Amino acid sequence: MVKEFGDFDEALKTINGQIEVFMEGIQHLSDGLHSLSQSLTADLMRAEDRRMVAESCRLREAMNQITREDAPHSSIAKLKRNMDFNVIKPLEGHLANNERLRTELEKRQRRLDEFKCACQQMHECSRRELSETDERFIMARQEYEISKTYFNKQDRQVFEWLHVLELHRDDILDSCMQTLKHLQYEFFAASAHAVSSALPARMAFRPMAEMLPECLEAQVDLEIREAEDDVSDVGNRLGDGFSTRFVERLARDDDAEGLPQQPVDSLSLSSLLAQGFAEGPARRALRLHRNDTQAAMDWLIDGGREEASRPTGGCGVRMPASAKHVRRRRELLEQQRERIRRAAEADRTAPPPTGFGVASVFE
């Protein structure tokens, strides 16, 4: 029983040490997540794409829900609080009790040695056949009775503790394991839920592995071939500099995302001006919302975010640059096909040409 108690104590010490390692690892993970989110947010806040800025802010808020120790409902704060109450303190209590039992076992051993010594003295008195009235016999018997009483008292207390621990040893270890599993699940589930709030509605971005320079080289070659195919455009651009061509390229790529150009309804504009809005933003809001006064007013009150009205590929997801290029090429291809179709229809519906042959001259 004493050997099993020693094994149980060593198991608890090992578990306690590994829990300390686990909590240190969780702290390092939390610090890394916090540093990464802060760095990404600081870098992306300077981006011109407002959707990227908004997504970086959402990522920072999600990481704060995981890593902020001063927030009582953050994942790491709840983990530390629950680990301290449900695992660490109970383990420390068991280890302290085991240390006390070790001290009691040492005391029991001393009482046992005293009792054995008293038994030897009584055996020596019996060997010498001392009478019961002899002072040496009386002293030996008194020492024997006292040592026996103290030993029985000490042995009974230690035995009961060892017996209880033997009965509940497996329950204690199983409870520790199940509690650790539950707390780990709760931490990672809460962290995953926090990150899920910052995820896009669908996977509209390209993986980093597809954005390597070797992969982008194909895009460069495609742009070069398009420029070579447009002979007239090349002839006009021979004297242009790189900056001029770059600005024109950006303007061409952004054509599909421009604001819808349509006349502004004067009554709707007057209604917005009467509400105290400036004329420029009011006109812009009406163009964005096709002269819908209420929608334009809501847009102005909301701060005039263009992303709410611009096409972004659906589901509020930022489209990658490659998707914009593909969409632009598809639109150009459709326009070219439409021109070819109209030209073919015009050729079919045109009247046949009048002949000027020899027969007509003689007639």
Automatic annotation (TrEMBL):
<dbReference type="Pfam" id="PF22562">
    <property type="entry name" value="UBA_7"/>
</dbReference>
<keyword id="KW-0175">Coiled coil</keyword>
<dbReference type="InterPro" id="IPR027267">
    <property type="entry name" value="AH/BAR_dom_sf"/>
</dbReference>
<dbReference type="InterPro" id="IPR015940">
    <property type="entry name" value="UBA"/>
</dbReference>
<feature type="compositionally biased region" description="Basic and acidic residues">
    <location>
        <begin position="331"/>
        <end position="348"/>
    </location>
</feature>
<feature type="region of interest" description="Disordered">
    <location>
        <begin position="305"/>
        <end position="363"/>
    </location>
</feature>
<protein>
    <recommendedName>
        <fullName>UBA domain-containing protein</fullName>
    </recommendedName>
</protein>
<dbReference type="InterPro" id="IPR009060">
    <property type="entry name" value="UBA-like_sf"/>
</dbReference>
<feature type="domain" description="UBA">
    <location>
        <begin position="263"/>
        <end position="303"/>
    </location>
</feature>
<feature type="coiled-coil region">
    <location>
        <begin position="91"/>
        <end position="118"/>
    </location>
</feature>
